[in-house]
Amino acid sequence: MKIDTNEEVFTSDKVAAAAGCSEATLRQWRNRYEFLENTVTGGMEVKRFSLSDICVVRAIKVLTDYGLSARDAISLANHPMGLRRLFAAFLSKSHRVQTLLSIRSSKSKNKTFEFSLFGPEHFYYEMERSGGVMTVLDLTVIAEHVFNHFEQQNKK
Question: Which one of 52, 65, 88, 143 is most buried, by most CB atoms within 10 A?
Fold first, then answer.
């Protein structure tokens, strides 16, 4: 099945299953933190999500599992250069996107964390910049998890 990565065709139950979270958690993130705000309608109509949205939800699930607060993970997703934009570019393959995202504590009083994209060849440099401690999110692994879920569903 070939689909446009930004076309909104998936329902919330499919998103939650592919991302590995419950529908209640997804609903809570959307309502409490204005996450994927374009899908919050306030009504009973069926909400639709894109493949890119699912990858972002999976990334947030992974980040919260590893200790980042939902608020901070969603802030990273909603940032103008954050996860939503990165996955849209990565999946469309219209731009070459570095696939590793470092997340580290910020030295600035205005920000909780800082993030940057890098390739594997720059791992040492990023570790040095972080003082030796950072969280690394691999966009490829996140996307593969989502693709593998749908592949398994198609075999059933």
Answer: 52
Strand, coil or helix: what is 142?
helix
Ranges 33-37, 62-66, 71-75: which has the least confidence = 33-37
Do the Cβ atoms of 113 and 105 come closer than 8 Å? yes
Q: What are the φ and ψ backbone dihedral angles of 33, each rounded to 5 degrees?
A: -115, 10
Half-sphere exposure in the Cβ direction for 151 (13 Å, CA) = 6
Judged by DSSP in three states, 127 sits in helix
pLDDT digits (tens, 9 = 90+) for 102-111: 988 877 777 7
Asked if the model's pLDDT at residue 82 lies above 80, the reply is yes
